């Protein structure tokens, strides 16, 4: 990781991508590059191990001063995620739609093409 110099003379750090990374690994990566991390919605953050980061601020790739706090959000596991429930779909598809593709009784299924 290269350190950039800001106008104040303190080295800048490029924020890594923490989204999709486990809490334990995020704490190690942040410390290694001179960043602090917090998860204000997770009081057990210092003890979290296998929870995955869903969002972060500042975003990955941002150049920030050494010692900047990166805020993290995790999946709470309470079903209140941003993705929402996708199944079952309502309204249900209309019934009988597939029957149009099946041959009717007595139908040979052959098409007669006009000859020119």
Automatic annotation (TrEMBL):
Source species, domain of life: Bacteria
InterPro entries cross-referenced by the UniProt entry: PASTA_dom
Alphabetized Gene3D superfamilies for the sequence: 3.30.10.20
PASTA domain sequence ranges: 9-76
Region named Disordered: 75-116
PROSITE patterns named in the record: PASTA
Name by which UniProt lists this protein: PASTA domain-containing protein
């Amino acid at each position: 990781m290269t350190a950039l110099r800001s106008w104040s003379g303190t080295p800048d750090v490029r924020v890594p991508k923490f989204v999709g990374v486990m809490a334990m690994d995020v704490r190690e990566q942040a410390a290694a590059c001179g960043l602090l991390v917090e998860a204000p919605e997770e009081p057990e953050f210092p003890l979290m191990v296998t929870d995955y980061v869903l969002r972060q601020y500042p975003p990955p790739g941002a150049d920030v001063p050494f010692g900047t706090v990166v805020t993290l959000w995790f999946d709470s596991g309470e079903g209140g995620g941003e993705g929402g429930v996708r199944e079952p779909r309502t309204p249900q598809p209309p019934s009988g739609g597939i029957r149009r593709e099946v041959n009717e009784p007595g139908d040979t299924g052959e098409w007669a093409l006009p000859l020119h």
